[in-house]
Amino acid sequence: MIKVEHVSKSFGKLEVLKDVSFQVEEGQTVALIGSSGSGKSTLLRTLNLLETPDSGDITIGDVSFNANDITKTTIAEVRQRTAMVFQRFNLFTNKTALQNVAEALIVVQHKSKAEAFDIARKRLEDVGMANWADHYPRALSGGQQQRVAIARALALNPEYLLFDEPTSALDPELVGEVLGIIQQLAQRKKTMLIVTHEMAFARDVADKVVFLDKGRIAEEGNPKSFFVHPTTQRAQQFLARFR
Ligand code: ADP
Ligand code: MG
After folding, report:
1. Residue 144: predicted pLDDT
2. Which atom of ligand 1 sits closest to the CA of residue 42?
3. Choosing a second label site near 102 at 20 to 30 A (CA), which of 83, 122, 174, 240?
């Protein structure tokens, strides 16, 4: 599981995460929601140690660490267990879909090219992109590029998937195909933390919703009750914007 205990993080004088605690159980899909600037990306990046927390404890599967006790080994162990999917797909433009997915398998995991391409083909199949393996990103729609990015994350076989607004950069008609892939991963009981503004998706697919407000968790709970009866005024105000 992912366990976050009393995590705080500032950038200079700006307190971005304030005593944040929550958990993602094995096999759960958790939606992290909140206004722009509330600290969602920082929280996700902290879990991956792209940002260093100032204080608090984090558990990523069998790796636990305190903010004051982060070594290169910790970072390597955390990165081994997590994969992140960003709003912007960040594919290599000079590599095909297949090469994009295979790249880290070859460079980071030192697999043979044959094995890497074999795995990459399977992961492209998982996201419905097998027929596009030899295409370059410029020949793919945004939704297709994001599906390749998801295949690339899956290829490394991470225990935990972290999504940061995976559909925010897409044209509206392309959002569904990417959410559909994430929903399939949820059904396969992948453990996932997803920052999203897609409230219907969070309601229907997430096992739990965590609402971040100005760096604090203002409310969390079962999506069915959260979306119908948010208990805090902040969550009520936030959700009103989506009605
Ligand atoms: P969200 O993803 O919820 O929109 P972020 O985590 O990106 O929020 O940002 C939270 C706050 O932290 C914002 O005020 C943002 O400007 C600030 N911030 C994020 N990253 C940095 C950084 N590297 N340096 C300084 N301020 C940052
Ligand atoms: Mg963000």
Report:
1. 97
2. 6
3. 174
